[in-house]
Design brief:
Shape of chain A: elongated
Radius of gyration of chain A: 23 Å
Largest sheet of chain B: 2 strands, antiparallel
CATH topology of the largest domain in chain B: Cytochrome C Oxidase, Chain A
Order of helices and strands of chain A: HHHE
Shape of chain B: globular
Oligomer: heterodimer
Number of helices of chain A: 3
CATH superfamily of the largest domain in chain B: Cytochrome c oxidase-like, subunit I domain
């Protein structure tokens, strides 16, 4: 099939199917995360990393 | 999510649980250097942009001077904005954020300095060579081979420092910004090296090892992903660090960032062929480019929404804080550009928009809106902190914001209107079926008001940028350089008790491998088996969503796959590399290695005569490809306007390809023999003498500059090395053959009352232009008695 794909334009449904699968999966995963992610502390520490140095940062003249 | 204050006070980081702490000082001197280099180069890059916009509306602005001509300044503009302005901004922002996210100083101050000064040297080399016409003619990869080598060395220096810092980090987990930085460092290295493979001929002249269709695909695989992995992914990383900092709240959804990161880096690499729709590129590659571009819409908007929603509960800041204004407007422009990109990748939309100013408008929505505004937001946030002071003037920053926004809108609207107008005029036909606007210049004159509107928009943006430069400079002067300090764990314990093999047997990996295996089997199987495998693939997808989701929901940190992955930079980087290589290999390798993948349709090219080769180099040097395509698409209107449709076989000896990406002037693929030599002579010296109303510059120096026929044999020999079937005699007699052909042209001109020396650039260029679209028999064919040249 791969030879036919690269040699001609007869199998162009393949990329379209791949797109449909991807879009569906992406939407499902995103919706699931959107709905379930609100009260999940698993990633809170990582999400807070940019803000951690707010309290501890000090400066020194260089 | 906890509040920022709670997060800072009660962090449960494994690293922070250690009592032994040390105080470290960050290397912020390197950040200051990169920031002000970015601002300085930004002023120059934008100024050149305004100049070339003026040249398009008023040809007189080219001043009949070679190094000030549009074809040479346009690459300078794009390189200055991409690599000097945005590049320095990225490096400065990365150095600042990664030290703090990893809780460590950069691994080597020396490597940081080499990176900074090396990068500035590269920019200076570009600023000198591009106006001199020293170019490879590949968009955003114009720099010649010695500079490419320098870029490679400096990139390796940066990469060593980057990964060394990752290794000596004191925070186990790599924050989402770091993931995007990793994809940036790894992918740009791959793209740059592959696309710039060339055979050096002299000190500053080389020929691409790829030709025609292959060269076009490799170039736009690079060109598109330069946008993706230089202008997008690192800036997304910057968004993920600086937007939460400015908004003082964590990113809206860390989990969404996982999904959108991996989708983005995997999909982006496939989308390059959308720059070549309806060209001689094989249909399979065009289709892959189109559908993967459409897929990109999802992860792109995932990132945009994640950025916008980070401001939840603090939208009031948008009224008062110029930093938030710039960052949020930047993210919004990102959303607009990433909606427009997939739209333009749909073949029927591309048929209208490609080669027009619509594409220029699209690009500038991203460059000015996304990159420029993100840079401004970061700089306004960063500079006061780097100098321990307050921003000099908030009101000036606010004025900059509104001036810049209005400038972008004027620019984009001008290009949308101009582009669509011109696209429609090119294809318009009368009731009798003839072209409604057969004279190309008519379509230029119709959009000239839009070119003027573009100058106004660009000028407004440029003035706003200069105001920012002043504001930042005064801010820096009012303070003193300050290096950030932090207390960090002395000996953090990164051991989570999970070995890499155990990690690789986690469900997400198993499902991913299973899906990839079934997907590959689908591709290798015949249609019947493929249909069955497709059903299995869909089932695996749904099951993985269920189990992957559960995996992510597990309450214990050590149970989650991505949480564990984030603690392993090497594995993370490797998976990232694999993600980007899949698309690259699937598209590039068959194009180069599998003959059937690029069928040599249509007439087969014959090698250029030595003088034509010289003329081609003049065409490349003057940047003719910037305004003229050499690719007639399969549309009735194009066939009527330009001639027979271009086919793949005609370009097999084009090292590098010259298909172009914009038609400020008409397509030239069938210009050979269309006009007499005298017409070309007059046209090059004064385009208005043959095409009244044209905005093309005059090229008086072409009649003065001399071709060095002593170089001819070297050039022909180099082409032979690349596979062009020149005969031994042709190489030995290259100079004589070139002179002979030149004399035929000068004799013809003489008969028409024009005297010109045979060894001039203009004669060589006329020879090349007269050859375009023609395939005369070649000595190698005569010898073998075949019609094909190979």
């Amino acid at each position: 099939m791969f030879k036919a794909f690269y040699a001609s334009a007869e199998l162009l449904d393949g990329p379209i199917i791949a797109m449909a699968i991807f879009m569906t999966t992406f939407a499902l995963v995103s919706i699931r995360m959107w709905r379930k992610g609100k009260n999940n502390p698993t990633y809170d520490h990582m999400a807070m990393l940019p803000l951690e140095d707010n309290a501890s940062a000090e400066g020194s003249a260089s | 999510m906890t509040s920022p204050a709670e997060g800072a006070a009660t962090s449960t980081s494994p690293a922070s649980q250690h009592l032994d702490e040390i105080e470290i000082t960050y290397d912020d001197a390197i950040v200051r250097k990169f920031v002000f280099a970015s601002v300085g180069w930004g002023v120059i890059g934008l100024l050149v942009g305004v100049i070339i916009a003026t040249q398009l509306a008023f040809f007189q602005a080219n001043f009949d001077t070679s190094w000030l001509t549009f074809g040479r300044l346009r690459p300078l503009h794009t390189n200055a904005v991409i690599f000097a302005f945005v590049g320095n901004m990225i490096f400065g922002s990365v150095y600042y954020s990664m030290q703090r996210l990893l809780k460590t100083r950069m691994a080597s101050d020396l490597l940081s300095k080499i990176h900074f000064w090396g990068w500035q040297l590269i920019i200076v080399c570009a600023a000198v060579t591009l106006p001199l016409g020293i170019t490879q003619s590949k968009e955003y990869a114009e720099l010649e081979w010695p500079i490419d080598l320098l870029v490679t060395v400096i990139w390796v220096v940066f990469a060593i420092n980057f990964f060394w810092t990752l290794i000596k980090r004191r925070e186990k987990h790599l924050y989402v910004a770091i993931w995007f930085y990793i994809s940036f460092v790894v992918t740009i290295a791959v793209l740059y090296i592959v696309n710039n493979l060339a055979l050096p001929v002299f000190a500053f002249k080389s020929y691409s090892i790829y030709a025609g269709v292959q060269d076009a695909l490799v170039q736009w695989w690079y060109g598109h992903n330069a946008v993706a992995f230089f202008l997008t992914t690192p800036v997304l990383g910057i968004m993920y660090y600086y937007l939460p900092k400015a908004a003082e709240r964590p990113v809206y959804s860390y989990r969404l960032s996982i999904v959108h990161f991996w989708s983005l880096v995997f999909l982006y690499i496939w989308a390059g062929p959308h720059h070549l729709l309806y060209t001689a590129l094989p249909e399979w590659a065009q289709s892959l480019g189109m559908v993967f571009s459409l897929m990109l819409w999802a992860p792109s908007w995932g990132g945009m929404l994640n950025g916008l929603f980070t401001l939840r509960g603090a939208w009031d800041k948008l009224r008062t804080d110029p930093i938030i204004k710039f960052l949020i407007a930047g993210v919004t422009f990102y959303g607009m550009a990433t909606f427009e990109g997939p739209l333009l990748s749909i073949k029927s939309v591309s048929a209208l928009g490609h080669y027009t100013d619509w594409i220029i408008g699209h690009v500038h929505t991203g460059a000015l809106g996304w990159n420029g505004f993100m840079a401004a937001g970061v700089f306004y946030w960063l500079v006061p902190r780097l100098y321990g002071t307050e921003l000099h003037s908030k009101s000036l920053a606010n004025f900059h914001f509104w001036l810049g926004t209005l400038g972008i809108l004027l620019y984009a609207m001008a290009m949308w209107i101009g582009g669509i107008t011109q696209g429609l005029m090119w294809r318009a036909v009368t009731a009798e079926g003839a072209l409604l606007y057969p004279n190309f210049v008519e379509t230029i004159e119709a959009i000239r008001p839009m070119y003027m509107m573009r100058i106004v928009g660009g000028l407004m943006y440029f003035v706003g940028f200069c105001l920012m430069a002043y504001n930042l400079f005064v801010t820096a002067k009012s303070g003193a350089p300050v290096d950030g300090r932090a207390k960090v764990p002395a000996k953090p314990n990164f051991d989570d008790g999970v070995a890499v093999p155990a990690l690789l047997t986690k469900k997400p990996v198993i499902f991913s491998v299973a899906a990839a295996a079934v997907g590959s089997a689908f591709f290798l199987a015949n249609l019947t088996v493929g249909a069955i495998l497709l059903v299995i693939l869909v089932i695996i997808g749904f099951v993985s969503v269920k189990f992957f989701g559960k995996e992510l929901e597990a309450g214990e940190h050590h149970n989650t796959f991505h949480y564990l992955l984030e603690g392993r930079p090497l594995l993370f980087s490797t998976l990232c590399l694999v993600a980007i290589l899949i698309g690259g290999i699937a598209e590039i390798v068959p194009t180069i290695m599998v003959e059937k993948a690029v069928p040599k349709t249509g007439p087969i090219a014959t090698p250029y005569q030595p003088l034509e080769l010289h003329g081609r180099d003049v065409y490349v040097r003057e940047g003719c490809y910037v305004c003229h395509s050499q690719m007639i698409r399969p549309f009735v209107s194009e066939k009527m306007r330009y001639g027979e449709i271009s086919t793949a076989g005609e370009f097999i000896y084009d090292h590098p390809f010259q298909w172009g990406s914009k038609r400020t002037g008409p397509d030239l693929h069938r210009v050979g023999g269309k006009y007499p030599n005298l017409w070309h002579y007059n046209h090059m010296l004064n385009p208005r003498s043959t095409s009244p109303g044209s905005n093309m510059p005059n090229y008086p120096w072409l009649a003065e500059n001399k071709v060095d026929f002593a170089d001819t044999a070297l050039k022909v020999k180099a082409m032979k090395t690349l596979g062009v079937p020149y005969t031994v005699d042709e190489i030995a007699n290259a100079a004589q053959l070139a002179e002979k052909q030149a004399k035929v042209i000068t004799e013809d001109l003489k008969q028409n009352g024009v005297t010109i020396e045979a060894n001039t650039d203009l004669v060589a260029l006329i020879a090349y232009l007269q050859r375009l679209g023609k395939h005369p028999a070649h000595p190698s064919q005569k010898a073998s008695g075949t019609a094909a040249a190979k």
